Amino acid sequence: MTMSLRLSALAIGLAALAAVLMPLPEMRPALAQANPAAEREDAMETISKQLRPLAGMARGQQAFDGQAVKAAAEKILAEFNRAEKLFPEGSGGGKSRALPAIWEQPDAFAARFEEAKAAASAVAKAGEANSQDRFQEAFKTLGGACAACHKTFRAPEN
Ligand code: HEC
């Protein structure tokens, strides 16, 4: 084999290798989500747990604590960021209450997540500013964001 032939053989070999390696990054999320329905249930449970003391403060059953509000709302925001990646197509059915509308109206579903994240962020900022008035407003918006998404995209409990 001449030098140039050997080089072109190498080039072909590299191209073939690249073609094999290319799909890997796209496959990784699927591998990381062996059970997305269970993972999103976990995320939603964590969100719900963090929301409880906030609801207590909003109703005046618990003393307002700006630092605690900020910490809880930031945790909720992080879980929303996690949860929104846990709805791959085809992961509904079985025990999941995720409705087909999630995959039929992906833009609307994504928009509900954006609203909920913005609301969680506003709650965190109200906590950081130690403003109970701003907290009351932002908390109402956050509660509305949970309800708005569940109404269209989550099946009722049976
Ligand atoms: C963008 C849509 C969306 C938003 C926003 C959202 N959820 Fe959910 N939530 C869902 C869907 C869809 C399910 C059903 C998931 C499944 O069963 O596969 C769910 C499930 C749940 C569950 C049941 C988990 C379980 O044990 O099965 C709880 C609790 C919950 N959400 C709480 C909340 C709270 C609290 C908020 C607001 C702070 C919220 N969610 C915001 C879409 C959303």
Descriptive tags:
about 160 residues; 2 domains; single chain; about 75% helix; mainly alpha; Four Helix Bundle (Hemerythrin (Met), subunit A); 7 helices; binds heme C
Written overview of the protein:
It is a single chain. The chain folds into two domains: 1-32, no CATH class; 35-153, Cytochrome c/b562 (Four Helix Bundle (Hemerythrin (Met), subunit A), Up-down Bundle), CATH 1.20.120. Helix content is 75%, strand content 0%. It contains seven helices and no strands. Helix 4 packs antiparallel against helix 6 (106-128) and helix 6 packs antiparallel against helix 7 (132-153). Mean pLDDT is 89; it is low at 24-28. Heme C is lined by residues 37, 40-41, 44-45, 47-48, 51, 76, 96-98, 109, 112-113, 116, 142, 145-146, 149-150, 153-154.
Q: What is this entry, summarized?
A:
This protein folds into 2 domains: 1-32, no CATH class; 35-153, Four Helix Bundle (Hemerythrin (Met), subunit A). It has 7 helices and no strands.
Order of helices and strands: HHHHHHH
CATH class type of the largest domain: Mainly Alpha
Low-confidence stretches: 24-28
The DSSP helix count reads 7
Shape by Cα distribution: elongated
Mean pLDDT: 89
Largest sheet: none
The first-to-last residue Cα distance is: 72 Å
CATH architectural grouping of the largest domain: Up-down Bundle
CATH topology of the largest domain: Four Helix Bundle (Hemerythrin (Met), subunit A)
Helix content percent band: over 70%
Structural class: mainly alpha
- List cofactors, ions and other ligands: heme C
Number of strands: 0
**Total domain units:** 2
CATH evolutionary superfamily of the largest domain = Cytochrome c/b562
Radius of gyration: 23 Å
Strand content is under 5%
